[in-house]
Amino acid sequence: MKKTFVTAVAAMMVAAPAMADLVFPSLSYRTGPYAAGGIPFADGFADYFTVLNERDGGIGGEPIRMIECETGYNTEKGVECYEATKGEGALVYQPLSTGITYQLIPKTTADGIPMHTLGYGRTSAANGNVFSHTFNYPANYWDGASGAINHILEINDGNIEGKRIALVYHNSAYGKEPIRTLEELQKKHGFELTLLPVDHPGQEQKSQWLQIRRERPDYVVMWGWGVMNQVAIQEAANVRFPMENFIGIWWSGGDHDVLPAGAASDGYKALAFHNVGDDYPLYDDIQKYVVDAGKAAGAGDQIGTVVYNRGLYAAMLTAEAAKEAQKIHGVSTLTPAMMRDGLEALSMTEERMIGLGMPNFGPTFEASCENHGGGGRVGVVQWDAESKSWSLISDFKPTDSELIGALIEADSAAYAAENNIEPQCK
Amino acid sequence: MFYREAGDFKTSYSADNQTFPIRFDRYRYYLVLFVAFLVIPFIINDYWASAILLPFLIYAIAAIGLNILVGYCGQLSLGTGGFMAVGAYACYKFMTSFPDINIFFHVLFSGGVTAIVCVIFGLPSLRIKGFYLAVATLAAQFFLVWLFNRVPWFYNYSASGQINAPERTVFGIEVTGPNTEAWAVYLFCLVFLVGSAIIARNLTRGMTGRKWMAIRDMDIAAEIIGVNPLTAKLSAFAISGFFIGISGALFFSVYLGAVEVGEAFGINKSFLVVFMIIIGGLGSIFGSFAGAAFLVLLPVLLKNVLVGGLGWPTDTAAHFEFLIVGALIIVFLIMEPHGLAQLWRVAKEKLRLWPFPH
User: Which of A62, A362, B29, B283 lies most in the core, judged by the most C-beta atoms within 10 Å?
Assistant: First the structure.
């Protein structure tokens, strides 16, 4: 015990020497009120790298070393994890928490380490001109807000004048993200928006749903995470709100979110920026190299769920960006600066996804120096309680890029002015 | 053996009443200060600063503040998280509204603002006591968090409701923002901690502190011997609020850099600081340090041993961390209900006599 203590302290004192491996830290949360979403994501993220290590011997011949660090969705622990893994040669950070992202944006930029926030974090980071080390492709929250409204428009044949839409949101930086976009869209399309904040962690939502029962909005859009989702869907069932008019953001569309409500959750919709299910050639490899080899991360019971797929998708984009970086710089060992170039040069095409055994797994997009946000194309999935499965009912479609682009421009310009940032793209 | 007290005579009242009357203790204190100011800044790295020392220093200030209120004046408060939020948001507003004034003064002013808010919420203490007062301060906790979430003026109308610390310097060296050096932020917080501890120590052993303790021990008796409960209680709230405000300001500006009120200053924070002073020792400045160290350092240490040393999965380690810290709290409180400070006091008495206890 004493010896381990000494080694641990020694390990903390001496920054580990730069290893030849490709180091990808996984700031996960397998405990706390958000663990329901954190576990499948962390499992998927880890399993994809296990497949690459076992099947291909890593990326470009370099083995991958994934360091997992438990944050509990807590910013203080997030800082600890960041500082602890930074010295290990971390190539890219994926904190899976909007709060931790806000904290790490200036830090990672100062340390020159890229950060990829897949469908979360600060939306205006899509403007690569200002946020040089932050990437949030393939879609961001404002795309999500616009995607939800587009879906409602589609159902109503393009006219939602006078419709009432309620936003049930986690009362935090994460949940507040879509408000500005929805307010702009409200002006454009003429619907009425009601805001219903739910406080952390979200177990108590009786009053919000009572208000929904009283006011009977036509649609409810939700920005929830963790235990909040299950409670909201259960409450919606209790007040007999029609599920097909209830649309969650992608973080509110996991299997664990709808299962507790049983048959009552049938028809619930969620937005998506990647596909669902396990009908992909990649899953054969996961079965062969991970599950059968006994190397599955966590309990191994999350394989094939929506958020697990999202973990796979995050890891896949990271691995592809690493390949790009190796190609650009012509070396197999990477530094964070090279990894940043790789992330910026990433272009996802259908051929590429087919080659990886993940056909139509996500939208196609192309990143560039200015564009760190991808194409912003958003799909819709719907839950079938009978067969306990999600299905993509609306393919990845473009969102209101004109409106969102202007908002991103304004917000990132404010950030640049506040922090004296020069545009990085020539 | 350790304490050689022979020949250590006191010839004046002030010598007799100094904080460290024993010579050995005094030298030890100077040594700690020497190491803290002149050794650690040269060997510190980012991990030690951000993950270990900064939280310890900042929580120690908060614990000193709460200890004045609860430990010395006997007014139970569960509003620490909310008061830290006042400090943080005051600091943010000062930093963005008056960018030309030094951050050092911003932190002090934030302490002042928090002191005023704390006095307002301390007013009920004149009528209600004990657990009822705890509930009143709990209301402060929830109200303040709600307020900072609700009124956009406090977060300068930013879309996300987050506050971000802009870059600020002291003597041309950055202490907030992303480009800070580990030693600079460490020293900045250390100066505040040492200052707070010295002020708190001298207040608590002077007339103000004795009034507080009189109120704590029996308020009616205190009133009969001429202690004004109004000034005693409210001064305890004000001074406690001042320190808690400073810690909140540092917590936001130097340590985290970006803060969201519900997550960073929730009810958990209030409980955490209360646990610190209970475990450390109520009514003891050293206890505030010990409690903060126990609750900040132990989880990090356990994590490093379990995950880094033994290679456990992170979730199992996180669960065991709770178990071990919880069990240790219970063990300590059963062994020594007066906290780590009392444990230290007993150990010191033994050491002074050792090896001839009779």
Answer: A362
